[in-house]
Design goal:
Layout lengths: L12 E5 H6 L10 H7 L8 H33 L8 E7 L5 H12 L8 E5 L7 H7 L13 H12 L5 E7 L4 E10 L4 E5 L25 E6 L2 H17 L17 H24 L8 E5 L5 E7 L2
């Protein structure tokens, strides 16, 4: 009889409890105030200064060390190759489901990293701007698949990230409006040689896709230096989405310009039922089919509990 303990499952991550992770904050200054946190917090997110202190303060220090190491390695490589290449930005991806707070995470990282002396220029771009316009989605018959990988102009997104990573002086990205639920014509977000680019979106960590000749193509994730996945149980993400939808029905949806204006007059019961239906037919399937499978490709996973607080940090081993 074999009485030896079962071998633990193989994993490339170190799992760190919130308590142990929070201890690391003592080594890092916290340059944000409660007012800053209030400004950066997303709708439905319970983020407070304690959460920033315990979780995001150590992340900013970790990223600062990664950026400094990457800059040193690039200098050594240029010297080794006898090349005079332009300085290239450090690219960070932030991924996760709808309603888990990845946009808040991305905004926090931008704010924190911009206050480090070696990375004052930090740009944040969301992949929403690379969704096909609604007219194109309608033409393709995939309006009901908005947010799924096929609803994005992946070539344009790939060109954008490749240009930024190559050190191009002036790179533009389309702008998306959540109010009108569409791309804003003739409006562009401009990225000009940042020290750090943060790219936030549902599907940014997807692996390269096989081409017709059997070889793997290039994925936008090939250009990332570091990636963060904001994780939560699907049932919690679903509940947060429903709560957010109900709040928006009483606020943003009442704007006459809102694409979702028709939902503003729903009763509370009708609004909850509508939110559940949208989740169960769009956001939930996209999470299980496309977003969640990319979690293991991240360098850092922030696991949230049912109260929207990060309970565990998974850090990829080096």
């Amino acid at each position: 009889m074999n009485l030896s303990s079962p071998r633990p499952a193989a994993t490339p991550f170190d799992e760190i409890s919130r308590e142990n992770w929070a201890r690391l904050s003592r080594e890092t200054p916290l340059p944000l105030s409660a007012h800053d946190v209030e400004r950066l917090r997303g709708l439905g997110d319970t983020l407070d200064l304690r959460e920033v202190d315990d979780i995001y303060r150590p992340i900013s220090r970790l990223l600062y060390m990664h950026v400094a190491a990457a800059q040193q390695l690039r200098r050594a490589r240029r010297e080794f190759l006898h090349e005079d290449q332009p300085r290239t930005p450090y690219v960070i991806a932030v991924a996760g489901s709808v309603a888990v707070g990845k946009s808040t995470t991305a905004r926090l990282l931008r704010e924190l990293m911009a206050r480090w002396p070696d990375t004052p220029r930090v740009s944040l771009v969301t992949t929403d701007g690379f969704l096909y316009p609604n007219a194109e989605l309608e033409r393709r018959g995939i309006m009901h698949r908005k947010g799924f990988p096929e609803s994005y102009d992946r070539r344009a997104l790939l060109r954008f990230v490749a240009d930024v990573k190559s050190g191009v002086d002036h790179v533009e990205a389309p702008v998306y409006s959540h109010l009108v639920y569409d791309i804003v014509p003739d409006e562009r977000a401009v990225v000009e040689r940042p020290d750090v680019l943060i790219l936030e979106g549902l599907n940014v960590l997807q692996a390269p896709r096989p081409r017709q000749d059997g070889r793997l193509g290039v994925a936008v994730s090939d250009f990332f230096d570091f990636s963060v996945y904001v994780d939560a149980k699907p049932e919690d993400a679903r509940r947060w989405y429903v709560e957010r939808f109900s709040t928006l029905r009483r606020t943003a949806f009442s704007d006459p310009r809102s694409y979702f204006r028709r939902y503003a007059d729903l009763s509370d019961q009708e609004a909850v039922a509508t939110a559940h239906r949208i989740w169960d037919t769009i956001n939930g399937p996209n999470l299980s089919e496309n977003v969640l499978p990319t979690r293991g490709r991240a360098d850092l996973v922030l696991r949230k509990n049912s109260t929207h607080q990060v309970a565990t940090v998974l850090l990829r081993r080096v």
